[in-house]
């Protein structure tokens, strides 16, 4: 405002009116003008208040910085797509110049069981498409969408299952959405989400469907996402930070601890490495290798590791050892990384086989009175707990897969058979035929309790895949049809107790056939994993030969690289 501009006075609030002379002294700068046009008393009040506010803000800022550097490691990055990533599909074409580029073709289902699974997939997809299209997951009872990442999670997680089941129409719907609406600049939610979950479900889904179809659109999306996920690895330890805001391109640890979860930091390497192999750009694989090396370098307890690891030093933290929640897929990926890299990196195999020997020594027990073998937990040094998460059931298939490449280690197959049988019992012993989330085993020879015990808090079933996954490996590695029959029994239980008018739902109580209490959630992994493994289990031959393919932890098949 110029000096001579008329000063507007609010006559409804005439606190103090400046004289014409005072107005002349008013500065052109609005803030000073505001200040000098006050009465001296008002000016004093303003000076005191502003000083007080400045000191307060300074104190709050200092306190916050100290707190955040102690408990969280905040890292933010600018996003600059590298030269290499501008046209990754062209790189691929160059790389494949002398190779045939073609997708894998899947025929129609071959038997009644596969047809039933395909019908289940169609039922789940139809409900998602009707009530939650483009959103992350479906709430099948409320018939409304739920938002997690803002990335159409169910579409990307399920697309390879649709393709494998030869559901052409549904596959085309999904492909069309990924091509036209998977847009991280538009759809992403502005919040921090699990780096691990986005990697295994979304990046894994895109990579897998790319390999099955060789359709460049999926590689393009995978690169867009991979570039942002890479930000999480830019840490002093080399381990990826737990949470990432893909929209703002910022990563950080959890708010409550500077530790990371072992399973989460150990279960992103297959995907990042694969992204490098298809683009020819090493940066993703370098990040994967660096984080894997950090975990390899740390001291272990006969191959077993605690479920937390420091984001700052990379050392394992705490004493809890579990192959269930927070531990599971770290072990799974040791074996699969060895396979992915053509069995040429002995560290992966050595760490894996050592961990299985650690399981035998510290965690492998048999329950009274039914000879059910299980994998317990360590809650402290030598403090054994006979608790087993349903998640641990993945280990049976994982051990059988390890045995396939080292047939001389017959104990691997024996353990796999025993654990599969126990996991099957976790289903068969419940009135619904569905497993609870967690069970305990009876170790007291004197007690007349049953071998498998369930606590009230653990009676929910989340449509999880781990046993079906192991049945798939067990059937195709041993040829024993009992595994298909167990799978069929379990599939029918899912149909009976989790199928809704629209889609499928997790349930709260596997003990009461008349009151299972649907939880109103259809997990994306039900379509990505559970139904996919059922379908593959019931196929007479293995559609994904074990020397050519590995599945990431979300059941997305990725190729094995031999060179
Ligand atoms: C999936 O996201 C993956 O299988 C993960 O490894 C464990 N949790 C769910 C399924 O239970």
TrEMBL record:
Record carries keyword Transmembrane: yes
Keyword Iron appears in the UniProt entry: no
InterPro entries in the cross-refs: 6hp_glycosidase-like_sf, Glyco_hydro_47, Glycosyl_Hydrolase_47, Seven-hairpin_glycosidases
Cellular component GO terms, alphabetical: endoplasmic reticulum membrane
Disulfide-linked positions: 393-423
Compartment(s): Endoplasmic reticulum membrane
Active site location: 197, 328, 437, 466
This protein's pathway: Protein modification; protein glycosylation
Pfam family, one: Glyco_hydro_47
Enzyme Commission (EC) number: 3.2.1.-
Annotated transmembrane regions: 45-64
Reactions catalysed according to its record: N(4)-(alpha-D-Man-(1->2)-alpha-D-Man-(1->2)-alpha-D-Man-(1->3)-[alpha-D-Man-(1->3)-[alpha-D-Man-(1->2)-alpha-D-Man-(1->6)]-alpha-D-Man-(1->6)]-beta-D-Man-(1->4)-beta-D-GlcNAc-(1->4)-beta-D-GlcNAc)-L-asparaginyl-[protein] (N-glucan mannose isomer 8A1,2,3B1,3) + 3 H2O = N(4)-(alpha-D-Man-(1->3)-[alpha-D-Man-(1->3)-[alpha-D-Man-(1->6)]-alpha-D-Man-(1->6)]-beta-D-Man-(1->4)-beta-D-GlcNAc-(1->4)-beta-D-GlcNAc)-L-asparaginyl-[protein] (N-glucan mannose isomer 5A1,2) + 3 beta-D-mannose; N(4)-(alpha-D-Man-(1->2)-alpha-D-Man-(1->2)-alpha-D-Man-(1->3)-[alpha-D-Man-(1->2)-alpha-D-Man-(1->3)-[alpha-D-Man-(1->2)-alpha-D-Man-(1->6)]-alpha-D-Man-(1->6)]-beta-D-Man-(1->4)-beta-D-GlcNAc-(1->4)-beta-D-GlcNAc)-L-asparaginyl-[protein] (N-glucan mannose isomer 9A1,2,3B1,2,3) + 4 H2O = N(4)-(alpha-D-Man-(1->3)-[alpha-D-Man-(1->3)-[alpha-D-Man-(1->6)]-alpha-D-Man-(1->6)]-beta-D-Man-(1->4)-beta-D-GlcNAc-(1->4)-beta-D-GlcNAc)-L-asparaginyl-[protein] (N-glucan mannose isomer 5A1,2) + 4 beta-D-mannose
Family, as annotated: Belongs to the glycosyl hydrolase 47 family.
UniProt-recorded name of the protein: alpha-1,2-Mannosidase
